[in-house]
Amino acid sequence: MKAKGWKDLAIGGRIEEAGCAEEFETGSWRTFRPVRDEEKCIHCLRCWIFCPDSAVLVEDGKVTGVDLDHCKGCGICEKVCPPKVHAIDMVKETDLDKEE
Amino acid sequence: MKSIAAKKVIALTGNDAVAEAMRQVNPDVVPAYPITPQTELMHKFADYVSDGDVKTELVLVESEHSAMSAAVGASAAGSRVMTATSANGLALMWEIVYIAASSRCPLVMTVVNRALSGPINIHCDHSDSMGARDSGWIQLHSENGQEAYDNVLQAVRIAEDTDVLTPVMVCLDGFIISHTIEPLEVIPDKTVQEFIGEFRPVHNLLDSDKPFTFGPLDFHDYYFEHKVQQIKAMEKAPNVIESVGIEYGKLTGRKYGHVETYKTEDAERIMIALGSTCGTVKATVNELREKGEKVGLLKIRSFRPFPVKEVREALAGAKAVAVLDRSASFGAQGGPVMMEVRSALYGETAPPIKGYIYGLGGRDINPDHIKQAFDEVKDMASSGKSSDETGFLGVRE
Fold first, then answer.
1. Is A53 helix (H, G, I), strand (E, B) or coil?
2. Nearest to B229 among A9, A16, A18 (CB)
3. Which of A70, A83, B93, B359 is the one with CA 20 to 30 A from B198?
4. B222: buried, middle or exposed (CB in 10 Å: 19+, 13-18, 0-12)?
């Protein structure tokens, strides 16, 4: 997203569109990334309910992935994933970079 | 524009004159907290509210910080909002004074100038509003009750202009104007309403069809742009102040600009002042003129935005200039007015200039002090050299 200059920006710090936080990518803040094991996941949607950034992606009642543009890596999804299931692990981004 | 409105002359104190202007404006919301010498202004306005003369929602808050906060909130909700304060009240508003300006709330606030503590004092000087000169508000000064009344009505139009959308402080000298009864001309209520027009907020939080976020966090990535917008709006204000002043002149016979020049055209020595002192200077100018001394007064009405062009024009032919400040700027190169004037003249063919501080904490200024200053700058006019030393008028050594 290209940031507007003073000539185009709404005055007084006002934000005129609703839901524009989506345009602001916060994924770069992340130190740990949630990595989900598709085989272990029972699609209970606890991670979807608790995610403070609405970054857990769901289609037809099933978790399909994580919106990495907005996931800040807080780890709440890992904590709320039922212990017996343990489908989510928080992995250091730098370790993932090495794998990649 | 119609011919000059029917005039009615009544006797009012400066505070009552502002309350009368506010009654005629009939603002949607007035959050207020009493402080000397502004108190009678809001007493009077509260009477109008109680008597049903206005439809205003008067919000009686627990402090000035809350008064300004409520003003910002009501303005964001699409209301026409006015308030008034003095000295320590303005100081307690401080945080929200800046927020009102940066949120582009077109408020009109009367500041009945009083010395800012300490030592504690209730009388007039300009240390309160001068401290707020960088808060982003437009500041208009009044010489008397008539001007205070006229400035309040014009301030509504200036603040709400869509090119400006910046709050306006109308300054009047505490006690000297606020508590002095003068005969002044008021225009009919209907004429006032036609002049100010219906308030059409650019943004309105209660408009559910156009939701927006007000007052969000604004970091390094946007804050700077919003501040430049404020600077640019202030640059557009002079044209609006001028056109509103001309329109008001056609309506009332009292035309307003950024400055008023009094016998400056052929003046060799010009004094610059703000507020009620200008009346004393005018009388002294008349007295000295009778003795053949070519002296004049440049009265500054809009201190923010500062009228650089008008000041340069008025001083173009002067041989010496004396600048009066009713507040100190400690450790600075003179008082706030002095610094503005000297800065305006930089790079110009400038006459020698000397700054004076006077009237702190309500100390009287009389024609002898003004003559003293005019006398002292006479030497500068012949030597052509400025004085870096700030003079003090009416202080004991």
1. coil
2. A9
3. B93
4. middle
What does the alpha-carbon distance between residue B173 and residue B18 come to, in Å, rounded to a whole number? 12
pLDDT at A21: 82
- Smallest Cα–Cα separation from A13: which of B105, B75, B69, B226? B226
Q: Could you tell me the fold of the domain covering B259-393?
A: Rossmann fold (3.40.50)
- State the Cα–Cα distance between residues B19 and B13, nearest whole angstrom: 10
Contact state of A12 with B203 under an 8 Å Cβ cutoff:
yes
CATH class held by domain B8-252: alpha beta
3-class secondary structure, B378: helix
Q: Quick check: B109 pLDDT over 80?
A: yes
Q: Which two tokens stand for residue B316?
A: 């173009």
How many pairs of residues across A and B have Cβ atoms under 8 Å apart?
A: 46
Q: Are B84 and B38 in contact (CB under 8 A)?
A: yes
Q: Within 13 Å of residue B171, how many CA atoms lie on the same side as its CB?
A: 30
Segment among A48-57, A71-80, A89-98, B350-359 with least mean pLDDT: A89-98
Percentage of chain A exceeding pLDDT 90: 80
Q: B40, B15 in Cβ contact below 8 A? A: yes
Helix B223-252 with B189-196: angle, nearest 10 deg:
140
- The shortest C-alpha distance from B226 to chain A (Å) reads 6
Element holding B109 (H helix, E strand): strand B108-113
Whether the CA torsion B1, B4, B6, B7 is positive or negative: it is positive
Neighbours of B99 (CB within 10 A): 19
Mean pLDDT along residues A6-24:
90
The answer to whether B321 and B385 are in contact (CB under 8 A) is no
Q: What does the H/E/C string look like for B294-326?
A: CEEEEEECEEECCCHHHHHHHHCCCCEEEEEEC
Find chain B residues with C-beta within 8 A of A26's C-beta. none
Contact B88, B100 (CB under 8 A): no
Distance of CA B127 to the CA centre of its chain: 13
Cα–Cα separations (whole angstroms), residue B78 to B28, B29, B240, B365: 9, 10, 22, 43
Domain A26-99 class, CATH top level:
alpha beta
Evaluate whether B98 touches B134 at the Cβ level (below 8 Å).
no
Query: Residue B56 pLDDT > 70, yes or no?
Result: yes
Q: So what's the ipTM on this one?
A: 0.87
Mean pLDDT of chain B: 96
Alpha-carbon span A87 to B325, nearest angstrom: 73
Q: Give the up-direction half-sphere exposure of residue B380: CA atoms within 13 A in the CB hemisphere.
A: 24
Record: contact A12-B165, CB cut-off 8 A:
yes
- What pTM was estimated for this model as a whole? 0.91
What is the residue extent of each domain of chain B? 8-252, 259-393
Closest CA to B201 of B84, B327, B74: B74
